[in-house]
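re: ur question from yesterday

yeah so i grabbed the chain u mentioned. its 409 aa long if i counted rite. heres the sequnce exactly as i have it in my notes:
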Amino acid sequence: MKIAAFPIQTVQDQFPILDRTVRGRRLAYLDNAATSQKPIRVLEKVDHFYRNYNANIHRGVHTLSQEATKEYDDARETVREFLNAGEARQCIFTKGCTEGINLVAQAYARPRLKAGDEILVSTMEHHSNIVPWQIVAEQTGATVRPIPITEDGEIDLDAYQAMLSERVKVVAIVHVSNSIGTINPVKSMVAMAHAVGAIAMVDGAQAGPHLPIDVQDVDADFYTLSCHKIYAPTGVGVLYGKTDLLQSMPPYHGGGDMIRTVSFSGTTYADIPSRFEAGTPNVAGVIGLGEALKFLMGLGRSRVFEYENKLARLAEVKLTELGGIRIVGNSKEKAGIVSFVMERAHPHDIGSVLDSYGVAIRAGHHCCMPLMERFNIPATARASFAVYNDEHDVDALVQGIRATKEIFG
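ran it thru and got these structure tokens back, copy pasting raw so excuse formatting
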């Protein structure tokens, strides 16, 4: 399989960590679905903030605070562009997808749900898009119901359609599966949810690094990003929400910067987005996020997706040719994730052998235990690709798997 032309060396040169060796070998970093590495322009942007205008935002009239505030607000506009949101204020900064989903569950769903109501989540969801709904269901008497998936790892759309009724108030679905790479038909699933009066929460943690995203086209009521997977610092996320829904929600946290007035006779709250951003935010992380999104958009996200996807499909072909390898998740629409199991070797053993070859993958249930149960396996080995990976990384992965087969027979 020929990989499409891409300025890969130019891209790789922007990631200093790729210069290091592991176990005496060139690093092949294939754990991008867990977290991505950071380009030097993001590292320098964060460093420049701390060296030159480190200050709290929105609260100072001095020069440093004004400069920090401008960069923070500019990053929100960059997020708006990245998601094609209608307004920047629809984009709330959080610690990550997990906080964004919990915010929606508690501030939107909890006041509205009651006994007999239903929340639909797919069987392939990350725990962060299951547990918050289980918690709110316990609090309200609602019920969480799993949407089945097929043997290929696709949403069973017929089963989903049959589950929809006026009892369903929330549908929570992942855009791209972190464990098997399936790209779900979220636009049609959102439309189906809206047809019965439900709101749709889309987990975009794995879509953010790989796909062009248009929240207005998808018509998602809420959409989350996990930004450390999009070449940005850790501890930063985004919750997008439709304006009327966000404005109808009470604050999730109380504190500074989310208020209009405070007195012992009563407190009034700020408008969105400040209402949901209590306390000192991760200013440096948000500024780094803005730079990371500019980096990714500058490469062209459709082009990035095509490149990563071809690498992943090449890896699947080469692994399958070795024999004794089963790819888990064979959806017709997939992102740059390869999840697999191997005869006689547990995924943790695979990960350990690969590390001795300088290859970093993820091994385990990937916070998707219901999905593992669906396929009757305890775990998988997962190689996940980013824009800085290349065919040498695929070859290193295959070499390490070949060695694993020799060790375990």
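noticed a couple things. The chain has a mean pLDDT of 96. also The radius of gyration is 22 Å.
anyway ttyl
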